[in-house]
User: Which sequence fits this backbone?
């Protein structure tokens, strides 16, 4: 709203592409974020998006700088956990631990506090303090039977820490609890359980094996065929690339 209409639209289109591509193509998302940043570096949402794009591509120093800039603009503590995780990414787990003890943590909502706990436990593990990591994850949120968006990740992290400590039976139990809560497949708890049970997944058909009789033939796509060619006549005005000033 603080930008002229045309500029605001250009920035918004780039931010939409950052959001769409962040998980599937973080490098491309990062490219869009840099354009948005060049167009509107004084907008907090742009700095935050640029931070997440840099974070997704493991550019932790750059991500941390953008998150700090966004926080200065908004005064919000929402980004505190991911800022601490950037410190971990930069090889400074002790700074992440220090951030876990700052007053800002108490201002976070429940999801943010759980995220901070996960980051702190990861920092403990970075420093070789596996038992301390386990204790860090033990909380009322972990003990609760209620399922929240962060529940699978919290249970998974606890199971993984237990396994790292050699407590395999407990780890199996908590991987199972993580799987029960993970309706969206946000973790690979099922694979970890299979590994613990000695289950090995192999392809049913080898490279030289023929498909069984009566099986439907696979669909073969011509590598030289561009599906977008069909829409060229209708979408001549569509700009699929980053919006440039």
Assistant:
């Amino acid at each position: 709203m603080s930008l002229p209409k045309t500029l605001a639209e250009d920035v918004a289109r780039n931010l939409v592409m950052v959001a769409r591509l962040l998980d599937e193509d973080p490098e491309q998302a990062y490219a869009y974020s840099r354009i948005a940043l060049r167009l509107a570096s004084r907008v907090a949402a742009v700095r935050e998006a640029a931070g997440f794009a840099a974070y997704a591509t493991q550019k932790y120093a750059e991500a941390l700088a953008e998150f700090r800039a966004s926080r200065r603009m908004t005064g919000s503590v929402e980004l505190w956990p991911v800022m601490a995780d950037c410190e971990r990414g930069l090889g400074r787990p002790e700074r992440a631990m220090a951030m876990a003890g700052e007053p800002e943590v108490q201002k976070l909502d429940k999801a943010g506090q759980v995220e901070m706990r996960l980051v702190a436990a990861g920092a403990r593990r970075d420093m070789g303090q596996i038992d301390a990591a386990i204790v860090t994850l033990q909380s009322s949120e972990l003990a609760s039977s209620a399922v929240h968006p962060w529940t699978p990740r919290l249970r998974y992290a606890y199971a993984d820490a237990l396994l790292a400590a050699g407590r395999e039976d407990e780890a199996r139990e908590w991987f199972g609890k993580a799987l029960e809560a993970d309706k969206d497949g946000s973790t690979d708890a099922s694979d970890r359980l299979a590994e613990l049970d000695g289950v090995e997944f192999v392809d049913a058909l080898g490279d030289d094996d023929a498909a069984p009789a009566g099986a439907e033939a696979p669909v073969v796509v011509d590598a030289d065929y561009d599906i977008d060619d069909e829409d060229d006549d209708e979408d001549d005005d569509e700009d699929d690339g980053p919006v440039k000033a």
